[in-house]
Amino acid sequence: MDEQWISACREILEENFLEGIISDSTNKEILQKVKIRPVLLKDTIYYQITKYCGKQVFHQNLEKEEVLNSMKEWFHGEKVHLKQAELRGNTAKITIRVSKKGKVTWKRKKIKGEEIPFFLDLSHNRKKKYILEDGMVIPFLLDLGVITKEGKIVQSKYDKFKQINRFLEFIEDILPNLPKNREITILDFGCGKSYLTFAIYYYLHEMKKYSIQIIGLDLKKEVIRNCNELSQKYGYEKLIFLEGDIASYNEMEKVDMVVTLHACDTATDYALYKAIKWDASVILSVPCCQHELNKQIKNKELSSLFSYGVIKERTAALFTDALRANLLESMGYKTQILEFIDMEHTPKNLLIRAVKTKKQTNKQEKWQEYLNMEQYLGCSLTLGNLLKEEGMGNETSI
Predict the structure, then answer these.
(1) Handedness of CA 269, 274, 280, 286 (dihedral sign)
(2) For residue range 54-68, what is the model confidence (pLDDT) as tens digits?
(3) Is the pLDDT assigned to residue 118 strictly greater than 50?
(4) How many alpha carbons lie under 13 Å from residue 322 in its C-beta half-sphere?
(5) C-beta separation of 230 from 191 below 8 A
(6) Sign of CA dihedral 134, 136, 137, 142
(7) Within 10 Å of residue 243's Cβ, how many Cβ atoms?
(8) Which residues pair with 185 in a beta bridge?
(9) What burial class does residue 192 get, using C-beta atoms within 10 Å of its C-beta: 0-12 exposed, 13-18 middle, 19+ buried?
């Protein structure tokens, strides 16, 4: 009777369930096997189902009764059915067999195990440790609408909360490259509403106790005024915001870290150029709207591919950032291109992280690679042109 094995399965799902596998398919192209494991999502227990169908894999999270109903279908399907299963808990396991005539037999066996709450074994239940954690009452996050007065994350701002923490993880990684024996100067080009600018200041000054000054630069007067008001409100004496353009800003002689997030098109190039001239120890850049190469790119071998506008646009954007990274390498920076946030939130999700290195690198080779790519793609990019004008591409200057 189905009721017996279903009852047994229900019992083990409720008793420290760890994992399950249902296999031995009658048609592996339709359904090869199913794996089950518990997950805790928003304080509710679900069961993650992984279905292997031919060369494809599908995932879904089901409640307990949904799993049991699905098992009936997997055992008694008309086009395909699975003939054996093993569900394992912490102290017992159930094995199930289905005969050619569809009869289900099962047995339960005790196994040696330590009685522990099953949720301690759930990898999905391990709460991600954020640098700025849920429950922390942080003034700038409150005023920016990311958290409530109790420190709880506003649901509609959860993606912003994750983005801020993700960026601080990048900051945490480069701390060994920042000086500790003097004040650090950080310049944020195109700071906008300054979620991340305030986060950097709070993390480095309030949490890590670094001596820092941060200058946020943006063209919007109202934004600058609001940010300065908030900075004064929090007593952040070394965090100021100025109205200005990236290309024409020349007020600083030395900057330790340059941040530029979503600076549009060639504004990113000017920010990178300024960072190189300042010999900044760290550069963090999330480029946006890379139009320049898209307008210039011309290559006979690739012309058939570039006849599709969206392909050309996306390829040009990726090529632009790769060429920028190459140029940074040629200036003595160890450079990475990293995923900033999930693609589902924004397509502008790549971060260029460059750290100045004292090690001897193949800088001249990287410069020549860039020149070769200029010729191959029929382009002349702003960052490369700015470096050429300064004579920074020749071997003696680097």
Answers:
(1) negative
(2) 778 888 888 888 888
(3) no
(4) 12
(5) no
(6) negative
(7) 13
(8) 213
(9) middle
Angle subtended at Cα 197 by Cα 194 and Cα 199, rounded to the nearest 5 degrees: 110
* Tokens 């649901």 belong to residue: 155
For the segment 211-256, what is each residue's pLDDT rounded down to a tens digit?
999 999 999 999 999 999 999 999 999 999 999 888 888 888 899 9
Predicted TM-score (pTM) of the model is 0.67
